[in-house]
# Entry
Amino acid sequence: MTTEKRRSTLALLALAVSAFAIGTTEFISVGLLPLISQDLNISVTTAGLTVTLYALGVMFGAPILTSLTTKIPRKTLLLAIMVVFIIGNSLAATASTIAFLLFARIISAFAHGVFMSIGSTIAADVVSSDRRASAIAIMFTGLTVATITGVPIGTFIGQQLGWRAAFIAIVIVGIIAFIANSILVPSDLRKGTPTTIAQQMKLFTNGRLLLIFIITALGYGGTFAVFTYLAPMLQELSGFKQNHVTVILLFYGIAIAIGNVIGGKLANRKPLKALFYMFIVQAVVLFILAFTAPFKIAALITILLMGLFHFMNVAGLQVYVVMLAERLMPGGVDVASAINIAAFNAGIAIGAYLGGVVTDSIGLIHTSWFGGIMVVAAVLLTGWSLKLERKDTLKEKTV
# Structure
């Protein structure tokens, strides 16, 4: 292995460790919802705001804070991000009211937004162009490992020692991530491209980029209408015991990891075409869950399939945004990446919120088909985007 390749591998490893810490705190609420609800004497859907508001914090924090921090050296910024992350989770561990817990979650979310936006561009930059989707998938492996081990272990800790103990464990993981960044991330990283809010708005006025941002929100967010309320669904509808939920979350995370690797490989060459077919299968699985949820074995199989497709689209969506931005607005690649991170979290917020509305109004079981409708919308828009790509290819050939 060459020195350059070893260096890029270590950088990707550090990003994956940090993504693990951030992924654990993002999704930990999913396993803790029933515990937070009971302890703070609030409804499960009110506790679900810990997912919704976190996602909104990332959504607004990612593009704005990424723009404001472009002049800060990348390594310094990474370390600062982890400090904010540690503070946010420390506050969550001391929360005695839902209002204070939500405040702490928003603080953590700001760190998440900046990290994931610059992390994606660093991952794409340290490898050759034909390995970009795989490099981004490696970074996102930290998130998938978080769902395999971080979320189930955090849920188990919460069940045994109280939900606040889970956030204390996350603080410890954050400190380890801080050390990993200090040691493994090189100091001579590519500098960020300075951008103003006005320049960011130009990205929103570009129809092609706006289309993929909407696809990201709908295609990724649809699953969260169900995933946010997975713990109560497993207990109340499928009839699983509380301790079984931890094990199911573990296997769900394994399915996510497998799907993430497959998705990265499928999206390396033609990301948009791969996304089109991924979304179709994802929507079908969500619709099937509406029928299988009350039956233990059938529900388990469907939920594991849902996990397989949960993160499969992430690398393709992110690499396609980078490719589009390089072609259409070269100076705005960093911010386009940040806005797409915001779009992922807009999808989480929309899916989690609407899943809560559906749960309160017509019941938990209906969240799955509702999420399926969101993904069907992503299928249609991806098909439209594919047509636009073909037109671009024809133009290039005729020129």
